[in-house]
Every structure is written in C-alpha cells, then in structure tokens.
Amino acid sequence: MKKSIFALSLALGLVTIGCVNTVSDTHSFATTWSKDSVAGRYARTMDQVYAASVAVIQNNGVMIKEYIPHDTTNNVRSLQGRVNDRNVWVRVEAVDPKTTQVDVQARTKWGVSDLDLVHEIEKEIALQLAAR
Questions:
Q1: DSSP-assigned states of every residue in 33-102
Q2: CATH number for the segment(s) 19-131
Q3: Residues 124, 116: contact at Cβ < 8 Å?
Q4: CA dihedral 44, 64, 76, 33 (to 10 degrees)
Q5: Do 79 and 90 meet the contact criterion of CB atoms below 8 Å apart?
Q6: What's the pLDDT tens digit per position in 70-108?
Q7: Which has the closest alpha carbon to 129: 67, 41, 34?
Q8: Higher confidence at residue 15 or residue 80?
Q9: Local confidence band at 117 (pLDDT 50, 70, 90 cut-offs)
Q10: Who wins on pLDDT, 69 or 76?
Q11: Between 78 and 9, whose confidence is greater?
C-alpha cells in the first residue's frame, strides 16, 4: 500500500513538472506555473530600448545570447542572460515606430519564477532609458 501511494505521488510530481514558453519564444524548465513576466511600454524606438536592455543585463549579470525569433519580423529582438543565478529572458518589440514594448521573464535553475528580479530588471531598463 505504501509503495502504491509513493508511486502515485511520484507520478503526480512528474506530471506537474514540465516546460513553459518564455517571452522570447523558447522553452524553459518549470516547476511552478505562477506569473513570471512583466511588460512595459516606452515612448522610445526599438533600438534605444534594446540597447538599454542589453546594458542592464550586462551590468547585472552575463548575457548568454541575442537573437531575432525566426517566426517574427525584424521588429522583435530577444536576449537571454543570467542575473543572480537566474535565467532572464527579455523580448523587445516595436508596437509602432515611436512605441516599444519590453517583456522580462526570470526563472531559477529549478524552474521557479522570480517576480522580484523581473520587476527590478524592468525598472532598471526604464531608468537606463531616462538617463539617455
């Protein structure tokens, strides 16, 4: 009886662990499905917001990769970095020529969301834009 209860709880645990989509259209390991991303819109060009995003990630951690998602136009750029031992994804998308949206997402290596870090990164991007 104890073995069957253990096997059932193990099976349920494996079912709840999985992959989630990131804001940059990739997949990441996840153990929780809580909110893990924040969006912000700025009255700046996409190039300015992307440069601010790169600067913030490089100042706080290490940038792993930059790319343009394949299923989009050149109006979308993404980057992935590591900040405070967390995976961070940033997506910068032009809403119109004068408005740009930035989406920031962060998860630990165990797949748990880190909303505090997401808010911090998004605010630092705004401050970086204000300083320019």
A1: -S--EEEEEESS-HHHHHHHHHHHHHHHEEEEEEE--TTS-TTEEEEEEEETTEEEEEEEEEEETTEEEE
A2: 3.30.310.80
A3: no
A4: -100
A5: yes
A6: 666 668 899 999 999 999 999 999 999 899 999 999 988
A7: 41
A8: 80
A9: very high
A10: 76
A11: 78
CA distance 27 to 23: 9
Q: Report the predicted TM-score, pTM, of the whole model to 2 decimal places.
A: 0.77
Copy the structure tokens of residue 76.
């979308």
Structural domain boundaries of the chain?
Answer: 19-131
Res 109: pLDDT: 83
Q: What are phi and psi of 92, to 5 degrees?
A: -115, 125
| C-beta separation of 78 from 90 below 8 A | yes
CA distance 118 to 132: 22
Indicate the angle between helix axes 46-60 and 115-131, nearest 10 degrees.
Answer: 120
Alpha carbon distance 77, 8 (integer Å): 43
Q: Is the pLDDT of residue 11 over 60?
A: no
> Which one, of 118, 113, 114, lies nearest residue 30 by Cα?
113
Quote the tokens at residue 83. Answer: 């900040």
